[in-house]
Amino acid sequence: MKVTQLSVFAENKPGHILAPCRLLAEAGVDIRALSLADTQRFGILRLIVSNWQAASKLLEEAGFLVRATEVLAVEVPDHPGGLAHVLSTFEGSDINIEYMYAFPFAREERAVLVFRFDNPDAAMERLCAAGIAMVERDELFAGNVVR
Amino acid sequence: MSKHPNQSNGPFHPVSAPDFLPLPQLQRLQLQRLQNIVRRAYDHVELFRRRMDERGLKPADLQALDDLAQLPFTDKGDLRDTYPFGLFASPMKDIVRLHASSGTTGKPIVVAYTGADLNVWSSVMERAFAVCGLHESDVIQNAYGYGLFTGGLGAHYGAERLGATVIPISGGNTDRQIMVMRDFGVTAVCCTPSYFLHMLDRASELGVDLRGLPLRAGVFGAEPWTTAMRVRIEEMAGIRAFDIYGLSEIIGPGVAIECECQNGLHIFEDHFYPEIIDPETGAPLPDGVEGELVLTTLSKQAMPMIRYRTRDITALIPGTCPCGRTLRRMQRISRRSDDMLIIRGVNVFPSQVESVLLEMEGTLPHYRIILTREHGLDQLEVQVEVTAHMFSDRVGALETLHDELADAMERVLQLRTRITLVEPRTIPRSEGKSQRVIDRRSS
After folding, report:
1. Does any CB of chain B come closer than 8 Å to the CB of residue A63?
2. Do residues B116 and B259 both lie within one domain?
3. Which of A16, A39, A69 has the CB atom closest to B395's CB atom?
4. Domain residues for A29?
5. A98, B402: Cβ pair inside 8 Å?
6. Does residue A60 belong to any structural domain of this protein?
7. Is residue B221 located within the same domain as residue B149?
8. Which helix (DSSP H) or strand (DSSP E) does residue B276 occupy?
9. Residue A34: inside a domain, yes or no?
10. pLDDT tens digits, residue range B217-226?
11. For B300, how many CA atoms within 13 A lie in the half-sphere containing its CB?
12. Given CB atoms, is A16 within the 8 Å cutoff of chain B?
């Protein structure tokens, strides 16, 4: 299923990642997954949080530039070949992975991969057809997660 | 429904009569006033008398308007050198008001007004508002700063003389500006164009759409702005945006104003006589040719300015304006000769940076130019605040934006430019004239 991810623009300077994280912490927002894409010049902080609408509003009001994007959270068996199997689903299609990142998920030794596709609907169709499970939003925040 | 001031205005305002003087009559008036003012400056201002004497000139030598070109120039340096009162032509008992410019280096420039001067000032400002189609039914929010800066009080007295309802809100406190604009039925606003853009941004954050308000005109000045900025302001606010020009040394705001044709600014040349000169040689240039604007005050008592070099680059527009005014027009000021930055020997104007940003983004993001020197070489950096429109969760999209901006800057400026994308609201906002350039090369 599609999950909403928030992206926050940050200059590549000391302390610039801390500010948005601290803001969310103070508001009691749970950050489930986080990835930082950075270049020499700037960074993009990507977050999957418990209440993205409230978090987005909070960040925007504090002056951060925020974008909400739909990503797919995919369960990957935590053993050799697990990732390759998921990726092979897209072989021969023109679906493009813009970026991806992983975080651990304590259910039957599985990891969760977050995918940003250029065409999420087409990607979802293929994953379903291949019988690959996607993680629902609610599961992500069900509390059975490695701390 | 139309928001165009000239259409809601009906017949021309009676105070506009001097704008339509037949040319021979206007020129007779100008020559007569010029002869009087040169005599006054010669008799009462030591610096001016000395410069005339050095050239073997007497006030009586001024027989035609063209003879003005023989007279010496005055510039900002003269005002600094004679600080504070050295160019006054009236005794203090006749002077009723002092203003001072915000000097960026050292001492400010002090300017003085007699009662008659204030009368002229409020009358030209009244005429300026009338040119924009404003009249006694208008509610004018004056967001120019009140105080030593001439903008606030200059616009205030002109609007009051017009009979409009004046809201003397001064600059700053943007949320209150927007509240007042909405709650008081404001129909016209005066401020710097950059501050109005800031108000527009803030209004949109607050969910206030200025297009739904009675606001129909803006009188914007005190800094150069571009046609693209005008288009954006007019579209976003649903108003007509008029360019007003003035400078403290001459009188303050009210030297020139755009009419409904928005093709150049009519100079109130019954009080301020314009010339265009080559900024390098000082030679007069013909109409239509761009150069430095030089102004002579024709009626100012306390502080006559003879051939004052404004440093503003413009041209006098040949031909008559469709509005029928006989007052000559100047092009909107695109830049100042002293705004020019020399970077590694290349001339760069901040307006060029602005035009690249506008062209690339469609709207003008907040930006700042930073000059540094590294290993003896000048470095040009343009900091651009990333907007929601530009931002993407994909690194590649931001990299592309960055590279396109850098390439476009290099093409237009002929200089390698470092582009830095910065977070929103990190570039300081100004509520008066904006500080777009930070020069840290002094080493």
Report:
1. yes
2. yes
3. A39
4. 2-69
5. no
6. yes
7. yes
8. strand B272-277
9. yes
10. 999 998 778 8
11. 28
12. yes
Distance from CA of A46 to the nearest CA of B (A): 8
Residues 6 or more apart in contact with residue B156 via CB below 8 angstroms: B142, B146, B166, B168
Q: Over the stretch B426-443, which tens digit does the pLDDT of each residue have? A: 888 766 656 788 888 864
**What are the chain A neighbours of B391 within 8 Å (beta carbons)?**
7, 9, 65, 67
Structure tokens at B288: 């239509």
B284-313 CB burial, b ≥16 within 10 A, e <16: ebeeeeebbbbbbbbbbbbbbbbbbbbbbb
Alpha-carbon gap, residue B329 to B431, rounded angstroms: 29
Quote the minimal CA–CA distance from A108 to chain B in Å: 31
**How far off is chain A from B247, nearest CA to CA, in Å?**
36
DSSP B147: S
- Across the range B219-238, mean pLDDT stands at 88
Last residue of a domain, one of B336, B362, B397: B336
The shortest C-alpha distance from B391 to chain A (Å) reads 8
Judge whether A98 is closer than 8 Å to chain B, CB to CB. yes
Does residue B89 form part of some domain? no
- How much is the average pLDDT of B244-257? 96
Q: Which residues of B touch A (CB under 8 A)?
A: 386-388, 391-396, 398-399, 402, 420-426
- The length of chain A is 147
Q: Which of A49-58, A64-73, A98-107, B180-189 has the lowest mean pLDDT?
A: A98-107
> pLDDT: is A103 or B21 the higher one?
B21
Q: Same domain, yes or no, for A84 and A35?
A: no
Total domains in chain A come to 2
The last residue of a domain, from among A27, A49, A69:
A69
pLDDT band for A108, please (50, 70, 90 cuts).
low
Q: Is A21 on the interface with B (CB under 8 A)?
A: no
Based on the structure, what is the number of domains in chain B?
A: 2
ipTM of the complex: 0.82
Residues 6+ apart with CB under 8 A from B35: B59, B62
Tell if the CB–CB gap between A41 and B424 is shorter than 8 Å.
Answer: no
Q: For B393, which of A10, A42, A44 is closest by C-beta distance? A: A44
Q: Tokens 């489930």 sit at which residue?
A: A32
CATH code of the domain in which B287 resides: 3.40.50.12780
Q: Are B159 and B140 within 8 A, CB to CB? A: yes
A103 interfaces chain B, CB cutoff of 8 Å: no
Last residue of a domain, one of B299, B319, B336: B336
Query: Using CB atoms, which residue from A10, A39, A99 is nearest to B423?
Result: A10
- Does the distance separating the beta carbons of A37 and B395 come in below 8 Å? yes
Containing structural domain, residue B428: 341-439
